[in-house]
Amino acid sequence: MKVHRALLSVSDKRGIVEFARGLAELGVELVSTGGTASELEAAGLHVRSVEDFTGFPEIMDGRVKTLHPRLYAGLLAVRDDQSHLDAAAEHDIEYVDLVCVNLYPFERAVAGRLPDDDIIENIDIGGPSMIRAAAKNHAFSAAVTSPESYDAVLDELRTADGRLSMATRGSLAAEAFAYTARYDTSVARWFSEKSEDFPPLHVRAYEKVVDLPYGENPHQRAAYYAQVGARMHVLSMVQQHHGKQLSFNNLLDLDAARDIVRDFSDPACVIVKHNNPCGVAIGTGALEAYERAFATDPLSAFGGVIGFNRPVDVATAQRLSKQFVEVLFAPGYEDGALEILMAKRSIRILEDNERRSPLVAEPEIKQVMGGLLVQDRDLDFADRTEMEVVTQRQPTDEEWRDLMFAWQVCKHVRSNAIVLAKDQATAGIGAGQMSRVDSVRLAVDKSRVKSLEGAVLASDAFFPFSDGPEIAIGAGITAIIQPGGSRNDPEVREAADKAGVAMVFTSRRHFRH
């Protein structure tokens, strides 16, 4: 297919003058609209207005300018169908062989929190229609939607006597339909988010950020896609200073680490392994928080993902350099710290420059075979006023502080989840067990603190029997926080009262499967 005529209408004007000039040098007639035409004319290019092409003026503040049968007949005519050729001749239709169009910046308008009326004006109508028409009729026309494609298109036209191959037109059509699908998804998502209900059609688009070395296992291919229009994603505003490319499992654990440290306002550190925290602690600074988190389970911490909510200083870097760390994630690194850390070849060093907060309305999605499970995020930030002390003994102030800390950590641990804590540091974690009593045993057995005397326990769901609390009480636990709601609550409460242990019911659970 030889390109004789091209229509150019772009919001993103990167490279458009150079692309148009390359087309003109090949003898292609340029048809253009509004701002694009003005920019091309200012660059000295001869441009035919779309009004001249259609014979109809631009009206209604630009809402109607390309929506005309003469244009769409020129885009959609099947040029080896005699009836189409006859119709084109009868109505003086001029063919359009290439459209170069990108759309109004709807996502930018939403991100800028413009008034609704302004956002609606950024819903493009003519642009998607032109792109879809050219892409549908790619046997006879080409749809170019990305400035990154300009050079390749020009190179082929120059080397092939102004022609584009069917393979190229098909590839451009695939890009074009993906582009308009992404755009429509953004618009649909904006409208659906104005309602508090889950929409009947859950539409999301995802854009590939990077191919990954492999998936969970070396024989699985993998890539990372970011959700289009999301306020934040796992790698948003993240700078990698050192180390190999992040892996599939690194990203899973990084997501968990970011989520956990974001929950704390005091200096905090988390060590994540296999998508579970194996140590979480608060300290006076990054170093103390790290040392206390590491002390929870030094064995599991080997090769983990470590996250901080404070910059890493030299002393912390020196301590970290003595451990095998897969990924280090922090909001900054003080002078000299990076040099110490970068002496280790294997460590991936990431800096978090994200200062925004995630949108609380964004739902959580889990993929299942052939579908998605969608739910509200578990954003419960423990509120003591909504909790009930159900035992004879009230928690002390120190126990309350640790109970709140343990409850906060508990919601990030895979069910069945048990978190032991002391002095705002985890003292033992039992995760992912099929039996809650086994999670208690695991948390107690894995504890590396000198003594659990005076520690507290958090459970993500109720205890069905008193055996779990009794194991923890026998190890020295003095206060327990759990949702309650079991038919055996009286038995569990009695076990706590008998041992003089305080117990708090939250009336809300934290399952995380």
Task: Give your account of this protein's structure.
- With 513 residues, the protein is of the alpha/beta class.
- The chain is 36% helix and 19% strand.
- It contains 19 helices and 21 strands.
- Strands 8-13-12-11-9-10 form a six-stranded mixed β-sheet, with helices on both faces. A six-stranded mixed β-sheet has the order 16-21-20-19-17-18, with helices on both faces.
- It is elongated, with a radius of gyration of 30 Å.
- The mean pLDDT is 92.
Please describe the topology of this protein.
Blueprint: E1 5-9, H1 16-25, E2 29-32, H2 34-42, E3 48-49, H3 50-54, H4 69-76, H5 82-90, E4 98-101, H6 106-111, H7 116-121, H8 126-136, E5 142-144, H9 150-159, H10 166-192, E6 206-212, E7 222-227, E8 238-242, H11 248-261, E9 268-273, E10 276-282, H12 286-296, H13 298-301, E11 304-308, H14 314-320, E12 325-330, H15 337-341, E13 348-352, E14 364-368, E15 371-375, E16 388-389, H16 397-410, E17 418-421, E18 426-430, H17 436-446, E19 456-459, H18 467-475, E20 479-482, H19 489-499, E21 502-505
Task: Output the keywords.
6-stranded mixed sheet; 36% helix; elongated; 513 residues; alpha/beta
> Mean pLDDT, as a whole number?
92
Round the Cα radius of gyration to an integer and report it.
30 Å
- What structural category arises from helix and sheet content? alpha/beta
Strand numbers in spatial order across the main sheet:
8-13-12-11-9-10
The parts where pLDDT drops under 50 for at least 5 residues are none
Q: What characteristic shape results from the CA principal axes?
A: elongated
The fraction of residues in strands falls at: 15-25%
SS elements, strand count: 21
Distance between the termini: 54 Å
**Number of alpha- plus pi-helical segments:** 19
Helix content: 25-40%
Largest sheet: 6 strands, mixed
